[in-house]
Every structure is written in C-alpha cells, then in structure tokens.
Amino acid sequence: MNISIFGLGYVGAVSLACLARDGNNVIGVDIDPVKLELIKSGQSPVIEEGMPELMAAMAASGKVSVSQDVQHAIDNSEVSFICVGTPSQANGSQDQTAVLRLAEQLGKALASKSSHHTIVFRSTLLPGTVEGSLKSLLEQHSGKVDGRDFDICFQPEFLREGSSIKDYDNPPFTIVGANSETAHVQMQRLFGHLPGQYHRTDVKTAETVKYFCNIFHALKITFANEVARLCEGLTVDPFKVMDLICADKQLNISPAYLKPGFAFGGSCLPKDLRAMQYVAKQADIEIPMLSQVLSSNQVHLQQACKKILALGSRHIGMVGLSFKSGTDDLRESPLVDLAEYLIGKGMQLSIFDPEVNLSRLLGANKRFIEESIPHIGQLMTNDIDQLLASNKVIVLGLNDKHLVEQVLAGLTAEHTLIDLVHLKQRADVRGNYIGLCW
Ligand SMILES: NC(=O)c1ccc[n+]([C@@H]2O[C@H](COP(=O)([O-])OP(=O)(O)OC[C@H]3O[C@@H](n4cnc5c(N)ncnc54)[C@H](O)[C@@H]3O)[C@@H](O)[C@H]2O)c1
C-alpha cells in the first residue's frame, strides 16, 4: 500500500519503519526538518532498540521518503496515519493544537484529490474528538463528506518506548474503530497478520479503550507500590506477596471483578480494606489510592440513589437485599445501605429477597435483621407479585435467574426498572429501563 505518516516521533517513526519493512511505500511527514533529514540519511529520529538498523535498511530500500508537503503526501498515498503529539496542558486538559492544525491541512489537501483516501488517527485522542472536531475540520476544509468521499478511523497504538518494534509486531490486540467497510478492509490488510485478536468497534469506543488501558496500567503500578509500602511496614517481602497475588489467575489476574455493576459489599472486602487502612495510619504509611477505595464505592452507591430519586416516585419496590445472589448475608450489603438512604429520603419501600425471607423463617439471619436493621425487616414482603403491583419503580439489585424471571414476567408498560446488575435481558424489559451507569 502507499501510506503517509504525519508526525515522526516514537509512534510515527516506528510505524514508518515497520510498515516499510512489511512491504509498503511510506512517506513520512513532520514539521521538524531535523527528523526528516535523519530519516532521509537512514538514521532513526528516536532512540529505540532495533531502529538504527531498520531505519538504515528502509532508507536504502527506496520504500521510505520524507516531505514537509501535506498535499504531496496525500496525493501520493491512499492511507494516512496521524501520529502527532497530544500532550497535557498546564491544567491537565489535552493539548490538541497539533492534531487540529493538521486536520485543517489534511482537509485542504483532500479537496483536490479525486481518489478515495482513509485517514487513520493513531494519536491518543479524547473520546469524541475524531467524529467531532476532527471530522468537522476535514469536511469543512475539503468540501467533502466523511463516509462518502473519504473515510476516517481510529486505531489506538499500544507500543511502549524501549521495546517499540517488538510491541509493534506483538500487540496485545488490534483495535480499529471505523464506520466504513473500506477502512476495515485496508486496516486488516495492514495489520490482520499481527498476533492478538483484531477487534472492530465504533470510533468512540476505540478512542476510549486506549485511555482506560493506560489508566489501568497506572492503577496496577500504583496498587503494587502501595502494597509494597504496606508490606515494608509489616516486614513482609512485597515481591513474594505480589508474585502470589499474580499467581491467582482465577480471581486476581483475570476478568473477575472487572465488569461494571453495583457497589461492592459483604463481610470481607470493606472490613479488610478498613483494617489495612488502620495499619497504614498507625505506621504513618500513606496509601492514597487504597484509602479512597471505600469512598469511591460510596459514590457508586450514591449514583443509584440519584437515579432513583430523580424519578420522583415515593413508592419503590426493591428486589434483592443481601450483598450478592445466592446468599442471605446482609452484613455490609450495599443494598441495605441503599434501602436506608432511600428511607432517609422519605421513600416508602417494599423489599423482596427470597434468600433473606427464608433465612428469617429458619432463624439464620433473624437476629441480625431484628437487632441491627429492624426498620428494614418490617419492609420485607414475600409476595413479589404484590410488590410489582403496588410499586411502579422497581430496583433490581440481584442477578438471580429465578428472581429475574419473576420480575420480567410482572413488569408492565407503566413500570420503570432501575437495573443495578446489567440485566442480560434488558432489551426485553417492558416499561422504562434505566441502567445504573450504562
Ligand atoms: N510514545 C508512546 O509510547 C506512545 C504509545 C502509544 C500512543 N502514543 C500516542 O501517540 C501520539 C504520538 O506520540 P509520540 O510519543 O510519538 O509523540 P512525539 O512527541 O514523540 O512525536 C510527535 C511528532 O509530531 C510532529 N508534529 C507535530 N505537529 C505536526 C504536524 N502538523 N505535521 C506533522 N508532524 C507534526 C512533531 O514534530 C513530533 O515529531 C500521542 O498522542 C501519544 O499519546 C504514544
């Protein structure tokens, strides 16, 4: 393919060398003439393992050329990769000056091009930028229409400085956010051979995934470092601890617990977090991230409260009270907290939870309900049909199969369902459906 690359920093220079190595003709464009001269003479503009040799070979192969002329690059390529920098501004916002300026220039160059062109944004861009300001600038300055006269897509880059060629050849996956079939076919031709799964998404999802991959990496590093500081205080080897944590591929290094849902609770997670926070306090160890976990959990609970209160109904039917499906354990159940909050706001609740009702009959949880939350115990019903008939707002807090079936069967067009569990059958819900944050 004939390709142009705009921005020859770490991402652009490595992509230029690797795409040329893979048999494509590549034109590199940068506003920095020093970088262009270096590439022209077969030298790498970035210090990266393997780049000096690869750049020298690619410059000699005749597959690489450089230019400062945007029009020339657009006219002589069918796909353009945009790899300009998107650094932070002093206030933390993303500085999009380079990419916005470039979009204007690209638009002007596209105006006179008669054949199809695809623009692939690879710079990290805030969700919505490509189909927002960048698409507008391209259309405005070209007088053409995205999806008809040219295509735009977003393909996040996952290479890391220091191992960028290896990462280019071995990405965790390839994600292409595009609306057009032509763009997907072109991207698959260029990247379909790479290991790791090829995912097609919409543009905004691809922009978003890139951010949360980086944020997740930052979170993991911070977790390991906070664990290490605590371990030092406890005189435990942090490496042994983290190695063992990583050895659990079922619950720790796995998709477990990584699905959006309701706040966590139960008899273990909150108390163990609090105990370790207390250890840190006593030893003067700062763990700002871990010590905010419970507050963040509370904010999540408040999210449910806000959505329920916004409906303006005083009668609420809650389905589920225990801290998760399949248990009657009410200790630190976020649904108990939710019920208490709503009662405090003057709501009239009716609560159904078959496991808890059963435990009341058997006496297992009876004492906790009678002594700790008698006001909630009084609101419990064992008649779900009655609960659905007398409340138009239903909060679904547990994802038990039988419970869900009962709720779905009893909902009518007048009901509003607030879903805290991301119900699989949400498309089939009769009435108004409101997800917690989806
Ligand atoms: N560095 C990484 O490891 C990495 C990994 C993944 C994603 N990213 C993202 O990729 C993008 C590029 O990162 P980088 O580290 O390669 O940046 P960089 O700062 O090293 O390079 C950016 C290049 O763009 C050039 N440029 C600026 N305006 C231009 C214009 N109008 N026309 C042509 N060239 C122009 C600059 O001169 C510079 O050479 C950023 O959005 C970054 O967040 C970086």
UniProtKB/TrEMBL annotation:
Stated EC number for the protein is 1.1.1.22
Write the protein's name.
UDP-glucose 6-dehydrogenase
Classification of source organism: Bacteria, Pseudomonadati, Pseudomonadota, Gammaproteobacteria, Chromatiales
The metabolic or biological pathway listed in the UniProt record of this protein is: Nucleotide-sugar biosynthesis; UDP-alpha-D-glucuronate biosynthesis; UDP-alpha-D-glucuronate from UDP-alpha-D-glucose: step 1/1
Report the family membership: Belongs to the UDP-glucose/GDP-mannose dehydrogenase family.
Question: Residue span of the signal peptide, if any?
Answer: none
Q: Cite the entry's keywords alphabetically.
A: NAD, Oxidoreductase
- The answer to whether UniProt assigns keyword Metal-binding to this entry is no
Principal EC category: oxidoreductase
Q: Where is the UDP-glucose/GDP-mannose dehydrogenase C-terminal domain?
A: 317-426
The source organism is Arsukibacterium ikkense
**Does the keyword field hold Nucleotide-binding?**
no
SUPFAM superfamilies per record:
6-phosphogluconate dehydrogenase C-terminal domain-like, NAD(P)-binding Rossmann-fold domains, UDP-glucose/GDP-mannose dehydrogenase C-terminal domain
Q: Name one GO molecular function term.
A: NAD binding
The record's section on NCBIfam families has: NDP-sugDHase
